[in-house]
Amino acid sequence: MSTFAELGISSEIISALSDLGFQEPTPIQAQAIPLILKEHADIVSLAQTGTGKTAAFGLPLIQLTDPNSRATQGLVLCPTRELCMQVAKDLESFAKYLNGIRILAVYGGASIEQQVRELRKGAQIIVATPGRLRDMIRRGMADVSSVRYAVFDEADEMLNMGFQEELNAILAGTPKEKNTLLFSATMSKEVADIASRYMSKPVEITVGDRNAGSENVSHEYYVVRHRDRYHALKRILDNSPDIYSIIFCRTRMDTQEIADKLIQDGYKADSLHGDLTQSQRDLVMRKFHSRNLQILVATDVAARGLDVSDLTHVINYSLPDDIASYTHRSGRTGRAGRTGISVALVDTKEVYRIRQVEHRLKKQFTKGSIPSGEEICRRQLGSLINRLSQIEISHDQIDPLYSEVAQQLEHLDREQLVKKIISLEFNRFLEYYKNAPDLNQTVSTRDREQRGSRPERERKPFATKDFGGKNFARFHLNVGRRDGLLPEYLVGRINEVPGGGRIKVGKIEIMRNTATLEGDSRFISQILDTFQQAKVNGKPVGIRLINDSERPIRKTERPDDRKKFKRLREQHR
Predict the structure, then answer these.
(1) In this structure, are strands 472-477 and 543-545 parallel, antiparallel, or unpaired?
(2) What is the pTM of this model?
(3) 30-88: per-residue pLDDT in tens?
(4) Dihedral of the CA atoms 359, 361, 367, 372 (nearest 10)?
(5) Which residues lie closer than 8 Å to 14 by C-beta, 6 or more apart?
(6) In the chain, which segments carry CATH 3.40.50.300?
(7) Among 53, 86, 224, 319, which residue carries the largest CB count within 10 Å?
(8) Strand order in 103-106's β-sheet?
């Protein structure tokens, strides 16, 4: 194993690393640092979050920075405010013993005037979110014309969030001869396009298999009926008394609903989704970081960029719509050398999707069994006994009270005392799980043959569902892939309509600048209304009903249906 000194890192930076407890470089650091320091190569690095990527680009970036120049020499782009702040904090700690190097975090949700004042003092390294930095460049508040090193941190996340246009605009203002360093968990087509467009003969570094998950994460799935999903979730939580977890849901509505139920049932939980203000989000994250919360229920978008290194579990209450998102979710546990568990709750119709993820990640999933009430009570009892045996007694405080307490309890023998302690702690569990039913569902051989053996393909999660063959209306939207539009956003908006769970969604097609959506024609007004005030990454959404001449005829459609759609269109012009 190499040392940081052998990689070429200066003694001042090594001293700062020692203060942080870093003794040896991780595999990604051992490969990337010499390429950046000595060969000045463009790099595409594929590795999971938690493998030491920040130090892999941060240490050489700091060492190559000229403290005598106030110009911005290094630029690090991050997808979220939280990651931006964390990366800037890490770089500052690496530069602890170097004089004259200023690092500035630039992100939305904070005072732009304050950030501009700090920038005018000079910052050799800017760590920024794409939206805020582009805004500052456009206003002439930031200058990136002297940048020698540009870093894309969590590049796939930035592109998934729709920052392609911002990245293009920012990089257009940087010198062509700079070095570009791209760090990503997955190698999507969009990431490959960035590499080919902005990098010169990049060297690819892969830690583990391409697009594979962390080696420290084990994967489990539980097959349950849809109506039992929440009860199954509670059993998984109760069976892990020391759990510290993020639960992922698909929509904001599901996220808030599950969080509210958990809070009502006595769990230390809260929600994180796009409807929260920045101050609300910051408060939730402070409570989660300090362990005042054990459980965070979140959407994929809201959880991007979170820096939590010691999660025990990631729970997929709903499977994501693409395998890359599952990789990101599961990669939030098992960090910094720790082990973690990724859990998925599925019904019998979703088991084939587990097989797809297994194939893509080259990981074997374990089919778990939802624990019984008796198993949970035994696990909780074991946890209590362990806590009792390890608790430290403060004799100075307890001894003056002991005689009085002992006298009040002297009528109890040892067996009675132990049972009362158990009852005090466990009456709630014992009562709740008394006569608890088995929630596990079996997957039939026929189901496995039909679903488990499906060939691996790019999943189309919102393919048309034929419920009568003639009840879909088609809508055109003025936003597309370039704006960061995702299928789950469209479905989420429809689900938020009062009674939206009854609105059937058909085929969704997202093109570069536009999209089409099929929805239950009985709810045209509701679908149009829910998108009237909607925005995608700040861009107002325009929606209209597609007319007959634009609408392809389905094979199952009768001539009368043409008249029906024409009448509906006239009503909503």
Answers:
(1) antiparallel
(2) 0.58
(3) 999 999 998 888 998 887 666 788 999 999 999 999 999 999 999 999 988 888 988 99
(4) -150
(5) 4, 5
(6) 11-206, 217-370
(7) 53
(8) 103-106, 125-128, 74-77, 149-153, 179-184, 43-46, 203-206
